[in-house]
Design a protein that fits this description.
0% strand; elongated; single chain
Length: 236
């Protein structure tokens, strides 16, 4: 029985698609800042490709160190418990209760310490991934800024400009292509962020990736509303 091909995102294909989009933007809008945004996303995608591979692999040196430290803590606890000679050391109930209370506190603190050490690797990886996802989120907002002044109504129903009006030199066709490129760029950003959760099962990271997906989808919806207006009959 053959193995299905499409089980996960192919990072190399995402990087190649971003590279192709950058060339398309450069060929049609060579002096546009949108091209530089594509270049920035290309670099972020390469970093995400490398980081996603790193977080998917167990950090064995750290795990060995944590295991050794936990073993040492358990040995210390065992030595402490072994030193409690209940029959000879406690002459009254008060001394016994005090010793039991101290032992319980030690066990609780030890449990908290073990949990901290066991989750250390995940928390280190999570912090690195969240920092990278924040960069993608910021890039999405920058992409949205590039389309804010691209108003289709100014082409369909032109009117007098003011001294502070942005310069508008695009034709109807060019504006449609520009908006389409921004929408594609936003979609690729969400795909780059999804690379991090393919082999890293972490609820916090998954939530951050879903947030970026919702953000880029919402921004793309606004762009497609403009594209529909530009289409013949789109306003009717």
């Amino acid at each position: 029985m053959s193995t299905p091909r499409f089980r996960e995102l192919d990072a190399s294909k995402i990087v190649a698609t971003i590279d192709t989009l950058e060339r398309r933007v450069a060929e049609r809008f060579p002096d546009s800042n949108l091209r530089q945004l594509c270049v920035a996303l290309h670099g972020i995608a390469l970093d995400a490709w490398a980081r996603a591979q790193v977080v998917a692999v167990p950090n064995w040196p750290l795990r060995i160190a944590v295991g050794a430290l936990i073993t040492a803590l358990l040995v210390m606890l065992g030595g402490t418990l072994a030193s409690l000679h209940l029959s000879a050391s406690f002459s009254d109930f008060g001394s016994f209760a005090q010793a039991v209370n101290a032992g319980v506190n030690d066990i609780v603190l030890l449990g908290v310490g073990i949990f901290f050490l066991v989750s250390l690797e995940r928390r280190i990886k999570r912090r690195r991934v969240l920092r990278a996802l924040h960069e993608i989120r910021s890039l999405a907002h920058i992409a949205d800024m590039h389309q804010l002044t691209k108003d289709p109504e100014r082409i369909l129903t032109p009117g007098p400009s003011t001294a502070s009006s942005p310069e508008r030199t695009m034709t109807r066709f060019e504006l449609g292509r520009y908006l389409d490129y921004v929408a594609e760029l936003l979609s690729l950003m969400s795909k780059v962020s999804a690379l991090y959760v393919q082999r890293f099962d972490d609820e916090v990271v998954l939530g951050a990736v879903n947030e970026i997906e919702s953000l880029t989808t919402g921004l793309s919806s606004k762009i497609w509303q403009k594209i529909v207006i530009l289409e013949p009959g789109g306003r009717g």
